[in-house]
């Protein structure tokens, strides 16, 4: 659970930064993109979904391969297929950089869509992670497991105790 200031600044949790640093060492990650995150709004869950540089590269590889297959089957231009796939895969996509301390700014539109106010709850999801508003997460059926919800409530209670 991390605080969000009025300008949308928040810190990426240290454990997430460590994982991203390790994954960004892959030769698939373009030079200079190790601290770039791709954020999109998950309309079904009402949260922000985040991919790191390696996930971005892998998704783009898969989309390119799929676009080539569709092009071969339909005669449609690969670029047109890619444009459509990117629009479907990354609605409201924003690339965000974070510094060595993990500080970043959540894009206003994504923050508003996900209803993120003063608190942002980060949940690892393997290749991606999600950023939730605690209020929204409580309301979304099946958004995360019961254990994740309990952890969130514990973290909120500790924040409240500290003032």
TrEMBL record:
Domain SpoVT-AbrB, residue spans: 93-136
Top-level taxon of origin: Bacteria
Record's protein name: Transcriptional regulator MraZ
UniProt KW Repeat keyword: yes
GO biological process: negative regulation of DNA-templated transcription initiation
Keyword line: Cytoplasm, DNA-binding, Repeat, Transcription, Transcription regulation
PANTHER family: TRANSCRIPTIONAL REGULATOR MRAZ (PTHR34701:SF1)
Sample GO molecular function, one term: DNA-binding transcription factor activity
UniProt-listed Pfam families: MraZ (PF02381)
């Amino acid at each position: 659970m991390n605080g969000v200031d009025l300008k949308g600044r928040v810190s990426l949790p240290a454990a997430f930064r460590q994982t991203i640093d390790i994954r960004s060492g892959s030769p698939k990650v373009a030079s200079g993109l190790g601290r770039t995150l791709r954020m999109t709004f998950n309309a079904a869950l009402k949260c922000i979904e985040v991919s790191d540089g390696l996930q971005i590269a892998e998704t783009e590889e898969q989309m390119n391969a799929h676009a080539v297959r569709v092009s071969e089957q339909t005669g449609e231009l690969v670029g047109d297929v890619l444009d459509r796939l990117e629009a479907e895969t990354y609605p409201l996509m924003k690339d965000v950089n974070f510094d060595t301390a993990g500080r970043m700014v959540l894009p206003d539109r994504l923050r508003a869509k996900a209803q993120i106010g003063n608190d942002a709850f980060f949940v690892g999801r393997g290749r991606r992670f999600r950023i939730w508003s605690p209020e929204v997460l409580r309301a979304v059926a099946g958004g995360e497991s019961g254990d994740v919800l309990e952890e969130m409530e514990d973290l909120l209670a500790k924040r409240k105790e500290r003032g």
